[in-house]
Amino acid sequence: MSEANENRNKLVELIKQKATLSDVPMLLPANPFFDLAGEEFGRRLLLTSGVNDVEYCLRPEFTLPIATEFLASKKPSDNISYTSANIGYIGKIFRQRANGPSEFLQAGIEFLGQEDRNEILEQMFDFVLSATKVYNIKPQILLGSVEIFESILEQINIAKVWIPRIRHRFGHADAMSRLLERLSDPHGAGTGGSTGSLPWKEDELIGVISDQMIAAGLSLTGSRTPEEIANRYFEKQQLNASTVPSEIIGFLQNYLNINGEANSALEQINILANDFGLDLQAPLNRLLDQIALLKHEHGMSEILFDASFSPALDYYTGIVFEAKREGKTLASGGEYNRLLERLGAATQINATGCSLWIDRLEGAENE
Amino acid sequence: MSDIILAVPSKGRLEELSREIFAEAGMAIERPGGARSYSGNLVGYNNISVQFLPASEIARELVRGSVDIGITGVDLIYETSENAIDNVVLACELGFGQADVVVAIPDAWIDVTTMRDLSDVAADFRNIHGRWLRVATKYVHLTRQFFAQHQIAQYQIVQSVGATEAAPSSGAADLIVDITSTGSTLKANGLRILSDGIILKSEATLIVSKSANWTPAQRMTIAQILDAIGIEQNEDE
Asked: What is the pLDDT of residues A262-287, one digit of tens each?
């Protein structure tokens, strides 16, 4: 047996220790991927269409089909909540790359519906680091925390309307810095719309926009509404410039810039939060516990924390991570308690998972 | 025989003007079978055969290398596939068939004038409306590239084959990416081009395939054509 196969068998054993192996089809409906992840991910799909005009894709990842299958098979009857399941996988995934389509071998585990989040996170890291060990790799661990950022947004004194707008840009570094820049520089914004003489009263402006939309045959409710357009127009004109105080913008910018060795980064966050009167103790402690385990149980020496790091998908909720080596991501994942809700569950359900890029592990082996 | 295949648009103004260009260069294109025939020849050049094809097919065949040289719009080359432009050399813009591929939004979106505004709207859209911002277009590759350049990730493309400009009013999409020469169709549909929303300025262009595997004799023939049209050549191409 070749060494690669031997290592893959070891991986399968590691998965089986913690989960049952799933059997996700290679050919999947494409629309759920577009719905969940948008065009940036959609452009990477290898598409084909059925005679019924339904678009299919070659399996681009495992998390979504496993989560969908979990929901379908574990539908609760009335008051019984979803049962839990740990579902593992190993198999090919297919993505479009700049130089053509490529296939990769991926393995991972989804821990769905488990009560104890900390215990499950430990299990996940244990699996990831046992897997890298198979390949004699001691990776660098990059950590991020969606829950710290969400906790900050909940606690800072800011108009409610801004919370989703800022949250939604977490993980999209450019969009985030543009929004914060615009909010911190009231006079830097451009001017408004195509017409020179717009009325300045909000209800009048809404009337003008509505008329224009009706004249163009646009639905007033199907897409952006007249209110929404008028609001953003006024916001852009900086009539609402005072909604977000500059010290809050400054705080967010400082927070997002924190990046470095994990313990000292968390210490910086602690100081910053104390100065600002925020209580981030609970999410910070969760991270500190995991970092201690990574160091002492798994012997990891290079652990980093980047406050702005998050997958650009809004169903992530807690701690997120990447295991890297020389800039290449070997494994990634974290906590995404909003995923199952997004897919139709009535409430948030705990979900933690990770995926390993086996080709990269094999490439980086023994170096 | 070391034939070179030259592809020319098969009908309308594009065909007329393409034939004029070659005629002025002293290479009259004959279409013996008339408008229904798809093959022709260059008078005096036995080793060049002419194919009359729809412009989008010319683009595809140039990218594949089954046509050696041809006239078509640059937008169609870009739209053939993501890296199609790497498979051809744009030899010469011919001064007709000008049209721009643009990002156009409902004119009523008075708060949106730039791509930066659009990226802001896109980032909030799903949160407000429970779905991605939808862009109707037949220019899937160009749209994806341009939106990525402007760091817009939170949107979804709705593929459209015809009458893209009607997509916002029919509710199929929120905005469009489409080709326009005068902008009048967009205007008539209550749409406005973003101030920095011009993705590509396209025009009819003489294009040489890179995919073709030429013999030295074929290479000479291509050089002859380019020379007659008055194009200076780089020996490396």
From this structure: 999 999 999 999 999 999 999 999 99
Question: For B156, which of A42, A99, A178 is closest by C-beta distance?
Answer: A42
**A12 by DSSP, 3-state: which?**
helix
Q: Which residues of B fall below an 8 Å CB-CB distance to A? A: 82-83, 106-114, 116-117, 119-121, 123-129, 131-132, 135, 144, 147-148, 151, 153-157, 168-169, 171, 174, 189-192
Domain that holds residue B117: 99-202
How does DSSP classify residue A82?
P
Q: E strand or H helix at A106, and its extent?
A: strand A100-112
Place of tokens 């408008």: B35
Distance CA A163, CA A159 (A): 7
B83·A99 Cβ contact <8 A: yes
Q: Give the A:B interface size as CB pairs under 8 Å.
A: 127
Number of domains in chain B: 2
Residue position matching structure tokens 């910086």: A268
Structural domains in chain A, CATH included, are 3-24+59-153+253-364 (3.30.930.10), 190-237 (no CATH)
Beta carbons of A178 and B190 less than 8 Å apart: no
* A154 near B CB under 8 A: no
Mean pLDDT of A47-67: 92
**Which DSSP helix (H) or strand (E) runs through A303?**
strand A303-306
B68 and B111 together in one domain: no
Q: Evaluate if residue B77 carries a pLDDT over 90.
A: yes
- Residue B53 above 60 pLDDT? yes
pLDDT of residue A186: 55
**Residue type (1 letter), A200:** W
The answer to whether the Cβ–Cβ distance between B111 and A192 falls below 8 Å is yes
Q: What is the CATH number of the domain that holds B28?
A: 3.40.190.10
Q: How far apart are CA B112 and CA A236, in angstroms?
A: 10
- For the entire predicted model, the pTM comes to 0.77
pLDDT greater than 60 at residue A155: yes
Largest CA distance in chain A: 77
Q: Pick from B156, B158, B111: which is nearest to B132 by CA?
A: B156
